[in-house]
Amino acid sequence: MPTFVVFDLEFTSWPGALEQDWGAPGQLREIVQIGALRLREDFSVVEEYEALVRPVANPQLSPYFTDLTGIGQEAVDREGRRPAEALGDFLGFCRGQTVLSYGNDMMVLGENVGWARGRGEEVKNGYLAAHFLNLRPWLNSVAPVTASVNVGRLWQVLGLAKPAAGEEHSALFDCHSLTAALKHLCPTIDAFPEAFLPHS
Q1: Whole-structure pTM value
Q2: What is the pLDDT of residue 119?
Q3: What digits encode the pLDDT tens for the residues 1-36?
Q4: How many CA atoms lie within 13 A of 129 on its CB side?
Q5: Beta bridge partners of 9
Q6: How many CB atoms lie within 10 A of CB 2?
Q7: Which of 35, 48, 51, 92 is the residue whose CA sits 20 to 30 A from 167?
Q8: Own/partner pairs for 105-114, CB < 8 Å, 24+ apart?
Q9: Residue 149 confidence (pLDDT)
Q10: φ and ψ of 23, to 5 deg
Q11: CA 200, CA 107: separation in Å to the nearest integer?
Q12: Are 4 and 171 in contact (CB under 8 A)?
């Protein structure tokens, strides 16, 4: 049965970074956490993926980021993987799949792959083996109530049961929130836009 992937990223941030589009000196959107779910056409979960990543340019997490995500410095120092290793592993997880995000997370992924390669590190696997799409514009048009909320609150504004343990701004929880929203809005795969359909 065909499958597809939904994914979410948590990346370094500081007060005002979003409003300034990470434009302040030294502020880069370095990935700290990757979460993903491989789903069947009925939106049931086949496999979960989760990884912590050690940022390089800003190895010390900001208190703002930790307060937002609950991800602490000690956990990243202890469990975080090298960016090139984690990115290559995740791209391998996505190989041959349609890969959906709520927003342009694939751009952040691309930035991080570029930085790793720029440091001379090998990133196994690549983008061309997967089909990345941002489904936020479609989802917001189908359910306008979602337009002003982040991915981790989709389940809440749609009046759904909490989809998993955890909270918003945890990458894997955010994937479960997105999946719950998709299942609610598309009871059958036939209601899913053709561009987002999994490839066999």
Answers
A1: 0.94
A2: 95
A3: 689 999 999 999 999 998 888 989 989 999 999 999
A4: 12
A5: 34
A6: 14
A7: 92
A8: 105/7, 105/8, 105/9, 105/134, 106/132, 106/134, 108/9, 108/11, 108/29, 108/31, 109/9, 109/31, 111/28, 111/29, 112/11, 112/29, 112/30, 112/31, 112/83, 112/87, 113/87
A9: 96
A10: -90, -10
A11: 25
A12: no
Q: Which domains does the chain have, with CATH numbers?
A: 3-189 (3.30.420.10)
Which pair of structure tokens corresponds to residue 116? 């790793």
Q: How far apart are CA 56 and CA 138, in angstroms?
A: 35
As a residue count, the chain comes to: 200
**pLDDT tens for each residue of 137-196:** 999 999 999 999 999 999 999 999 999 999 999 999 999 999 999 999 987 666 777 777
Q: How far is CA 78 from the centre of its chain?
A: 22
Number of H helices, E strands in the chain: 7, 5
Which residues, including other chains, have CB under 8 Å from residue 78's CB and lie 6 or more apart?
A: none
Which tokens sit at 47? 């496999």
Instruction: Dig out the tokens for 74 from the structure.
Output: 């000690």
Contact 63, 101 (CB under 8 A): no
